[in-house]
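Standup notes
- DV: blocked on the single-chain target, sequence here:
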Amino acid sequence: MKRKEFIKGMFLAGVAMHISPLSLLASNPNNFTPSQLTGKGGLDLIGDNQQLLQRDVWNAFLKMKKAAMRDKINIQVVSGFRSYDRQKQIYESKYASYTQQGLTPTQSIAKIIEYSTIPGTSRHHWGTDMDIIDANQPQPTSVLEEENYHGNGVYTKMKKWLDEHSESFGFYEVYTNKEDRKGFNYEPWHFSYKPISVLMLEEFLCLDFEEIIGNEKLSGQTVLSNEFIEAYYQENILDINPKLLP
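- DV (later): unblocked, structure below
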């Protein structure tokens, strides 16, 4: 059995038994620290403001951007690296908004994880993932909407270009529109740099998720049970584009 398959199998077995795996990747020379994997610091990031990405990711993105410019498409990152604290702000703001609207804690968290992650578990923590638009187009009020990327949407030309070319630069759509996929809703704007993100996911799966989610005492904490965490693992973390799995 291949090493990656063994690691993944051990992880899934650990989840089923409510046991968090130990550090299975201690000998991996590509090791990332828990802080790097959960958005708490330590990554080598470059770029501007919301466009921060790991150095190798940024360089690969610039090559893809340059190629797209030949077809008059100006790919722009509107959200790259996102820290743990920023993800927590997003989570807490949405939770407060939904509960004020009358939703129960369970309903509020279910609504949050349609598109947003539980703090500490976002792929945006890794500096490998990015949300993108075509800056050459007239910008709608809300840019990250599915209708903007299909049909008569302003980013349709860019999306078609990405479908054809992005993987040759190492970038893959994460949350596809495959009908039987669970977890986060379809995000035609979210792309991940596979050469690094697969390594980070492999190591991320070996962290103690109950500790990550439980230590910060998030709003609605009682909803974040072991049963919730297991489902979240399977549906929101693992049910992604299979090309991005270890």
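- Follow-up: The chain has one domain: 3-244.
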